[in-house]
Protein backbone atom coordinates (compact mmCIF):
# COMPACT_ATOMS: atom_id res chain seq x y z
CA UNK A 1 0.00 0.00 0.00
CA UNK A 2 1.28 3.44 -0.87
CA UNK A 3 1.88 5.51 2.22
CA UNK A 4 -0.63 8.29 2.87
CA UNK A 5 1.99 11.08 3.05
CA UNK A 6 3.49 10.04 -0.27
CA UNK A 7 0.10 9.74 -1.92
CA UNK A 8 -1.06 13.11 -0.62
CA UNK A 9 2.23 14.75 -1.64
CA UNK A 10 2.15 13.42 -5.18
CA UNK A 11 -1.46 14.44 -5.55
CA UNK A 12 -0.92 18.02 -4.41
CA UNK A 13 2.69 19.07 -4.69
CA UNK A 14 4.25 19.89 -8.03
CA UNK A 15 6.29 16.86 -8.92
CA UNK A 16 9.66 18.53 -9.23
CA UNK A 17 11.75 16.49 -6.83
CA UNK A 18 12.44 12.80 -7.18
CA UNK A 19 12.13 12.17 -3.47
CA UNK A 20 13.41 9.15 -1.60
CA UNK A 21 10.45 7.02 -0.50
CA UNK A 22 10.84 7.70 3.22
CA UNK A 23 8.79 10.00 5.42
CA UNK A 24 10.94 11.73 7.99
CA UNK A 25 9.51 12.41 11.40
CA UNK A 26 12.09 13.77 13.82
CA UNK A 27 15.79 14.14 14.42
CA UNK A 28 18.33 14.04 17.17
CA UNK A 29 22.01 14.93 16.94
CA UNK A 30 23.44 13.26 13.83
CA UNK A 31 20.36 11.10 13.22
CA UNK A 32 16.99 11.41 11.51
CA UNK A 33 14.08 9.04 12.16
CA UNK A 34 11.29 8.15 9.78
CA UNK A 35 7.63 7.51 10.63
CA UNK A 36 8.29 3.82 11.18
CA UNK A 37 11.07 4.63 13.65
CA UNK A 38 13.94 3.65 11.33
CA UNK A 39 17.12 5.57 12.09
CA UNK A 40 19.29 7.31 9.48
CA UNK A 41 22.79 8.64 9.99
CA UNK A 42 22.76 11.99 8.23
CA UNK A 43 25.80 12.92 6.13
CA UNK A 44 23.76 15.29 3.95
CA UNK A 45 22.48 17.71 6.60
CA UNK A 46 19.62 18.81 4.33
CA UNK A 47 22.12 20.09 1.74
CA UNK A 48 24.83 21.23 4.15
CA UNK A 49 22.32 23.23 6.19
CA UNK A 50 21.89 21.65 9.62
CA UNK A 51 25.35 22.52 10.90
CA UNK A 52 24.40 21.88 14.52
CA UNK A 53 22.57 18.64 13.71
CA UNK A 54 19.08 18.11 15.08
CA UNK A 55 17.55 19.10 18.38
CA UNK A 56 20.27 21.40 19.69
CA UNK A 57 18.73 22.46 23.01
CA UNK A 58 20.10 25.96 23.10
CA UNK A 59 18.95 26.74 19.57
CA UNK A 60 15.51 25.23 20.19
CA UNK A 61 15.00 27.23 23.35
CA UNK A 62 16.10 30.49 21.73
CA UNK A 63 13.71 29.95 18.81
CA UNK A 64 10.78 28.99 21.02
CA UNK A 65 11.34 32.04 23.17
CA UNK A 66 11.39 34.26 20.07
CA UNK A 67 8.20 32.71 18.68
CA UNK A 68 6.39 33.56 21.90
CA UNK A 69 7.70 37.11 21.86
CA UNK A 70 7.59 38.25 18.21
CA UNK A 71 8.55 36.57 14.98
CA UNK A 72 7.67 39.06 12.26
CA UNK A 73 7.84 42.82 12.04
CA UNK A 74 9.01 43.81 8.49
CA UNK A 75 11.99 46.00 7.78
CA UNK A 76 10.08 49.24 8.43
CA UNK A 77 11.22 49.00 12.04
CA UNK A 78 14.36 48.22 13.98
CA UNK A 79 14.84 45.01 15.92
CA UNK A 80 17.69 44.02 18.20
CA UNK A 81 17.99 40.54 16.69
CA UNK A 82 18.88 41.75 13.20
CA UNK A 83 21.33 44.24 14.68
CA UNK A 84 23.06 41.59 16.77
CA UNK A 85 23.01 38.93 14.06
CA UNK A 86 24.54 41.38 11.57
CA UNK A 87 27.17 42.49 14.07
CA UNK A 88 28.23 38.90 14.68
CA UNK A 89 28.12 37.93 11.02
CA UNK A 90 30.22 40.97 10.10
CA UNK A 91 32.74 39.99 12.73
CA UNK A 92 33.08 36.39 11.57
CA UNK A 93 32.82 37.05 7.83
CA UNK A 94 35.08 40.13 8.12
CA UNK A 95 32.56 42.19 6.17
CA UNK A 96 31.32 45.69 7.03
CA UNK A 97 27.63 45.62 6.04
CA UNK A 98 25.07 42.83 5.91
CA UNK A 99 21.73 42.42 4.13
CA UNK A 100 19.59 39.47 5.25
CA UNK A 101 17.65 37.38 2.72
CA UNK A 102 15.50 34.25 2.93
CA UNK A 103 17.65 31.97 0.81
CA UNK A 104 20.94 31.42 -0.97
CA UNK A 105 19.58 32.38 -4.37
CA UNK A 106 18.34 35.68 -2.96
CA UNK A 107 21.76 36.35 -1.48
CA UNK A 108 23.21 35.87 -4.98
CA UNK A 109 20.57 38.15 -6.51
CA UNK A 110 21.51 40.84 -4.02
CA UNK A 111 25.21 40.35 -4.68
CA UNK A 112 24.73 40.71 -8.44
CA UNK A 113 22.55 43.81 -8.02
CA UNK A 114 25.14 45.32 -5.70
CA UNK A 115 27.84 44.86 -8.34
CA UNK A 116 25.66 46.39 -11.07
CA UNK A 117 24.79 49.36 -8.86
CA UNK A 118 28.44 49.90 -7.96
CA UNK A 119 29.30 50.11 -11.67
CA UNK A 120 26.27 52.32 -12.34
CA UNK A 121 27.30 54.77 -9.64
CA UNK A 122 30.78 54.99 -11.11
CA UNK A 123 29.27 55.59 -14.55
CA UNK A 124 31.75 53.02 -15.77
CA UNK A 125 29.37 51.37 -18.26
CA UNK A 126 30.32 48.01 -16.80
CA UNK A 127 27.65 45.34 -16.57
CA UNK A 128 29.20 41.98 -17.46
CA UNK A 129 29.73 39.08 -15.10
CA UNK A 130 32.33 36.36 -15.33
CA UNK A 131 31.23 33.12 -13.66
CA UNK A 132 32.71 29.62 -13.59
CA UNK A 133 31.89 26.50 -15.54
CA UNK A 134 30.44 23.89 -13.25
CA UNK A 135 29.25 26.49 -10.75
CA UNK A 136 25.93 26.52 -8.92
CA UNK A 137 24.40 29.73 -7.58
CA UNK A 138 20.68 28.99 -7.33
CA UNK A 139 17.45 28.78 -9.32
CA UNK A 140 16.20 32.36 -9.61
CA UNK A 141 16.82 34.18 -12.88
CA UNK A 142 19.90 36.13 -11.83
CA UNK A 143 21.45 33.24 -9.95
CA UNK A 144 20.62 30.87 -12.80
CA UNK A 145 22.24 33.26 -15.27
CA UNK A 146 25.61 32.80 -13.55
CA UNK A 147 25.21 29.06 -12.99
CA UNK A 148 27.66 27.17 -15.18
CA UNK A 149 25.48 24.22 -15.96
CA UNK A 150 23.81 24.27 -19.40
CA UNK A 151 20.98 21.87 -18.54
CA UNK A 152 19.80 24.15 -15.70
CA UNK A 153 19.93 27.31 -17.83
CA UNK A 154 18.78 26.28 -21.28
CA UNK A 155 15.01 25.84 -20.75
CA UNK A 156 14.77 29.34 -19.28
CA UNK A 157 16.77 31.36 -21.78
CA UNK A 158 17.13 34.20 -22.53
CA UNK A 159 18.66 34.89 -19.13
CA UNK A 160 20.34 38.11 -18.02
CA UNK A 161 22.79 39.29 -20.66
CA UNK A 162 26.51 39.79 -20.27
CA UNK A 163 27.51 36.56 -18.52
CA UNK A 164 30.47 34.48 -19.65
CA UNK A 165 31.88 31.30 -18.14
CA UNK A 166 35.53 30.64 -17.45
CA UNK A 167 37.28 27.51 -16.28
CA UNK A 168 37.62 27.12 -12.51
CA UNK A 169 41.27 27.05 -11.41
CA UNK A 170 42.43 28.18 -14.86
CA UNK A 171 43.47 31.80 -14.67
CA UNK A 172 44.25 32.13 -18.40
CA UNK A 173 40.67 31.25 -19.23
CA UNK A 174 39.46 34.00 -16.89
CA UNK A 175 41.90 36.57 -18.25
CA UNK A 176 40.62 35.87 -21.76
CA UNK A 177 37.09 36.79 -20.70
CA UNK A 178 37.84 40.06 -18.93
CA UNK A 179 36.73 43.14 -20.88
CA UNK A 180 36.43 46.82 -19.99
CA UNK A 181 32.73 46.03 -19.37
CA UNK A 182 33.32 43.38 -16.68
CA UNK A 183 31.70 44.53 -13.42
CA UNK A 184 32.19 41.41 -11.28
CA UNK A 185 33.63 37.92 -11.10
CA UNK A 186 31.62 35.38 -9.12
CA UNK A 187 32.83 32.02 -7.85
CA UNK A 188 32.53 29.45 -5.07
CA UNK A 189 35.88 28.93 -3.27
CA UNK A 190 34.81 25.28 -3.00
CA UNK A 191 32.34 24.24 -5.69
CA UNK A 192 29.59 22.11 -4.13
CA UNK A 193 26.94 20.95 -6.62
CA UNK A 194 29.60 20.97 -9.33
CA UNK A 195 31.36 18.02 -7.72
CA UNK A 196 33.45 19.30 -4.77
CA UNK A 197 36.22 21.20 -6.53
CA UNK A 198 38.51 23.19 -4.26
CA UNK A 199 39.99 26.46 -5.57
CA UNK A 200 43.77 26.64 -5.64
CA UNK A 201 45.61 29.36 -3.75
CA UNK A 202 47.20 30.67 -6.98
CA UNK A 203 43.85 30.86 -8.75
CA UNK A 204 42.11 32.90 -6.05
CA UNK A 205 45.12 35.21 -5.67
CA UNK A 206 45.31 35.77 -9.43
CA UNK A 207 41.57 36.47 -9.69
CA UNK A 208 41.85 38.97 -6.83
CA UNK A 209 44.75 40.68 -8.64
CA UNK A 210 42.75 41.05 -11.86
CA UNK A 211 39.85 42.51 -9.90
CA UNK A 212 42.09 45.01 -8.10
CA UNK A 213 43.76 46.14 -11.31
CA UNK A 214 40.52 46.71 -13.22
CA UNK A 215 38.13 47.80 -10.46
CA UNK A 216 36.11 44.62 -10.88
CA UNK A 217 34.23 43.37 -7.81
CA UNK A 218 34.95 39.88 -6.56
CA UNK A 219 31.90 37.97 -5.31
CA UNK A 220 32.39 34.75 -3.36
CA UNK A 221 29.43 32.42 -3.07
CA UNK A 222 29.93 30.71 0.28
CA UNK A 223 26.34 29.57 0.57
CA UNK A 224 27.53 25.96 0.84
CA UNK A 225 31.22 26.08 1.79
CA UNK A 226 30.82 28.84 4.41
CA UNK A 227 29.81 28.76 8.06
CA UNK A 228 32.55 26.54 9.45
CA UNK A 229 32.34 23.75 6.91
CA UNK A 230 35.89 24.22 5.61
CA UNK A 231 37.40 24.48 9.10
CA UNK A 232 37.48 28.27 8.85
CA UNK A 233 34.34 30.28 9.46
CA UNK A 234 34.37 31.16 5.76
CA UNK A 235 36.48 29.30 3.23
CA UNK A 236 38.13 32.46 1.83
CA UNK A 237 39.81 33.07 5.18
CA UNK A 238 42.15 30.10 4.78
CA UNK A 239 43.34 31.61 1.47
CA UNK A 240 43.61 35.14 2.78
CA UNK A 241 41.89 36.26 -0.42
CA UNK A 242 39.05 38.52 0.60
CA UNK A 243 36.01 39.08 -1.60
CA UNK A 244 34.26 42.44 -1.98
CA UNK A 245 30.87 40.77 -1.63
CA UNK A 246 30.14 37.53 0.21
CA UNK A 247 26.98 35.44 -0.26
CA UNK A 248 25.91 33.23 2.63
CA UNK A 249 22.93 31.00 3.51
CA UNK A 250 22.47 27.27 4.19
CA UNK A 251 24.36 26.78 7.48
CA UNK A 252 23.96 30.28 8.91
CA UNK A 253 20.55 29.48 10.42
CA UNK A 254 21.20 25.75 10.87
CA UNK A 255 17.81 25.03 9.28
CA UNK A 256 15.79 28.20 9.80
CA UNK A 257 15.46 29.69 6.28
CA UNK A 258 17.86 32.62 6.17
CA UNK A 259 20.58 33.92 3.89
CA UNK A 260 22.68 37.05 3.72
CA UNK A 261 25.11 38.96 1.61
CA UNK A 262 27.86 40.99 3.13
CA UNK A 263 30.07 43.63 1.60
CA UNK A 264 33.06 45.78 2.38
CA UNK A 265 32.76 49.44 3.31
CA UNK A 266 34.08 50.45 -0.11
CA UNK A 267 31.23 48.63 -1.84
CA UNK A 268 28.54 49.64 0.66
CA UNK A 269 29.36 53.33 0.27
CA UNK A 270 28.88 53.25 -3.46
CA UNK A 271 26.15 50.74 -4.25
CA UNK A 272 22.66 49.93 -2.94
CA UNK A 273 20.74 52.82 -1.38
CA UNK A 274 17.19 53.06 0.04
CA UNK A 275 14.76 52.11 -2.70
CA UNK A 276 17.23 49.93 -4.63
CA UNK A 277 16.51 46.65 -2.90
CA UNK A 278 14.35 45.10 -0.20
CA UNK A 279 12.58 42.06 1.17
CA UNK A 280 9.44 41.54 3.24
CA UNK A 281 10.60 38.64 5.37
CA UNK A 282 14.36 38.89 5.04
CA UNK A 283 16.09 39.19 8.40
CA UNK A 284 12.96 38.82 10.49
CA UNK A 285 13.34 38.42 14.27
CA UNK A 286 13.08 34.63 14.16
CA UNK A 287 15.60 34.18 11.34
CA UNK A 288 18.03 36.56 13.01
CA UNK A 289 17.60 34.89 16.37
CA UNK A 290 18.69 31.70 14.62
CA UNK A 291 21.78 33.31 13.08
CA UNK A 292 22.81 34.97 16.31
CA UNK A 293 22.25 31.84 18.40
CA UNK A 294 24.05 29.57 15.94
CA UNK A 295 27.06 31.90 16.06
CA UNK A 296 26.89 31.96 19.87
CA UNK A 297 26.94 28.17 19.89
CA UNK A 298 29.89 28.13 17.48
CA UNK A 299 31.78 30.24 20.02
CA UNK A 300 30.73 28.38 23.14
CA UNK A 301 31.24 24.90 21.75
CA UNK A 302 34.28 25.83 19.66
CA UNK A 303 32.76 24.25 16.56
CA UNK A 304 35.56 25.44 14.27
CA UNK A 305 38.12 23.70 16.41
CA UNK A 306 36.07 20.55 16.30
CA UNK A 307 35.85 20.67 12.49
CA UNK A 308 39.63 21.06 12.30
CA UNK A 309 40.21 18.19 14.70
CA UNK A 310 37.81 15.73 13.08
CA UNK A 311 38.70 16.49 9.44
CA UNK A 312 41.91 14.39 9.25
CA UNK A 313 39.96 11.40 10.58
CA UNK A 314 37.28 11.75 7.89
CA UNK A 315 39.84 12.37 5.18
CA UNK A 316 41.95 9.36 6.07
CA UNK A 317 38.84 7.15 6.32
CA UNK A 318 37.82 8.24 2.83
CA UNK A 319 41.38 7.89 1.53
CA UNK A 320 41.33 4.29 2.76
CA UNK A 321 38.23 3.70 0.65
CA UNK A 322 40.11 5.00 -2.38
CA UNK A 323 43.00 2.66 -1.51
CA UNK A 324 40.95 -0.42 -0.73
CA UNK A 325 38.04 -0.31 -3.17
CA UNK A 326 38.52 -0.35 -6.94
CA UNK A 327 35.18 1.40 -7.39
CA UNK A 328 36.28 4.50 -5.42
CA UNK A 329 38.50 6.56 -7.69
CA UNK A 330 39.32 9.78 -5.89
CA UNK A 331 38.61 11.92 -2.84
CA UNK A 332 38.27 15.70 -3.06
CA UNK A 333 37.37 18.31 -0.47
CA UNK A 334 38.25 20.46 2.50
CA UNK A 335 37.04 20.10 6.07
CA UNK A 336 33.57 18.62 6.33
CA UNK A 337 32.84 19.19 2.65
CA UNK A 338 34.08 16.05 0.97
CA UNK A 339 33.33 14.09 -2.17
CA UNK A 340 34.39 10.74 -3.53
CA UNK A 341 34.30 9.91 -7.22
CA UNK A 342 32.83 6.43 -7.66
CA UNK A 343 32.29 4.05 -10.56
CA UNK A 344 28.71 2.98 -9.81
CA UNK A 345 25.86 5.35 -10.72
CA UNK A 346 25.80 7.65 -7.70
CA UNK A 347 22.00 8.00 -7.65
CA UNK A 348 21.67 4.26 -7.09
CA UNK A 349 24.34 4.31 -4.40
CA UNK A 350 22.41 7.04 -2.56
CA UNK A 351 19.26 4.89 -2.59
CA UNK A 352 21.15 1.82 -1.36
CA UNK A 353 22.79 3.92 1.36
CA UNK A 354 19.37 5.15 2.48
CA UNK A 355 18.19 1.55 2.74
CA UNK A 356 21.22 0.88 4.96
CA UNK A 357 20.27 3.88 7.13
CA UNK A 358 22.75 6.41 5.75
CA UNK A 359 21.81 9.67 4.03
CA UNK A 360 24.32 11.05 1.52
CA UNK A 361 24.14 13.46 -1.41
CA UNK A 362 25.00 13.48 -5.08
CA UNK A 363 27.11 16.02 -6.93
CA UNK A 364 28.01 16.46 -10.59
CA UNK A 365 30.55 14.09 -12.10
CA UNK A 366 29.30 10.97 -10.33
CA UNK A 367 30.46 12.30 -7.00
CA UNK A 368 29.09 11.10 -3.70
CA UNK A 369 28.99 14.21 -1.53
CA UNK A 370 29.45 14.16 2.25
CA UNK A 371 28.48 17.33 4.11
CA UNK A 372 27.51 16.16 7.61
CA UNK A 373 26.43 18.34 10.52
CA UNK A 374 29.59 19.91 11.96
CA UNK A 375 29.04 18.07 15.26
CA UNK A 376 30.00 14.75 13.65
CA UNK A 377 32.23 12.50 15.81
CA UNK A 378 34.62 9.65 15.01
CA UNK A 379 32.01 7.01 15.84
CA UNK A 380 29.69 8.49 13.19
CA UNK A 381 32.47 8.48 10.63
CA UNK A 382 33.17 4.81 11.42
CA UNK A 383 29.48 4.00 11.07
CA UNK A 384 29.26 5.90 7.78
CA UNK A 385 32.29 4.05 6.37
CA UNK A 386 30.87 0.65 7.43
CA UNK A 387 27.55 1.41 5.76
CA UNK A 388 29.16 2.84 2.65
CA UNK A 389 31.34 -0.24 2.26
CA UNK A 390 28.29 -2.49 2.35
CA UNK A 391 26.69 -0.38 -0.36
CA UNK A 392 29.76 -0.06 -2.57
CA UNK A 393 30.91 -3.69 -2.41
C1 LIG B 1 22.39 25.92 -2.41
C2 LIG B 1 23.23 26.93 -3.05
C3 LIG B 1 22.70 28.14 -3.54
C4 LIG B 1 21.22 28.42 -3.54
O1 LIG B 1 20.68 28.45 -2.27
P1 LIG B 1 19.08 28.33 -2.07
O2 LIG B 1 18.90 28.58 -0.60
O3 LIG B 1 18.72 26.94 -2.50
O4 LIG B 1 18.46 29.34 -2.92
C5 LIG B 1 23.58 29.08 -4.04
N1 LIG B 1 24.90 28.85 -4.08
C6 LIG B 1 25.44 27.71 -3.64
C7 LIG B 1 26.93 27.52 -3.67
C8 LIG B 1 24.64 26.70 -3.11
O5 LIG B 1 25.18 25.55 -2.70
Intertermini distance: 31 Å
Bound molecules: pyridoxal-5'-phosphate
Please report the total strand number as a whole number.
Answer: 17
In spatial order, strands of the major sheet run 4-12-11-10-7-5-6
Proportion of strand residues:
15-25%
User: What class, by secondary structure content?
Assistant: alpha/beta
Mean pLDDT: 97
Seen as an oligomer or otherwise, the chain set is: single chain
Helix content: 40-55%
In DSSP terms, counting alpha (H) and pi (I) runs of 4 or more, how many helices? Answer: 15
- Mass-distribution shape: globular
Radius of gyration: 21 Å
Task: Please outline the helices and strands.
Layout: H1 4-12, E1 24-28, E2 31-34, E3 39-42, H2 45-48, H3 57-69, H4 80-93, E4 97-101, H5 104-121, E5 128-132, H6 141-145, H7 150-153, E6 163-166, H8 171-175, E7 182-187, E8 190-191, E9 197-198, H9 201-214, E10 217-221, H10 236-239, E11 245-248, E12 259-263, H11 265-269, H12 285-300, H13 303-324, E13 328-334, E14 337-342, H14 346-355, E15 358-359, E16 361-363, E17 367-370, H15 378-392
Helix pairs in contact: 3-12, 4-12, 13-15
Bound molecules: pyridoxal-5'-phosphate.
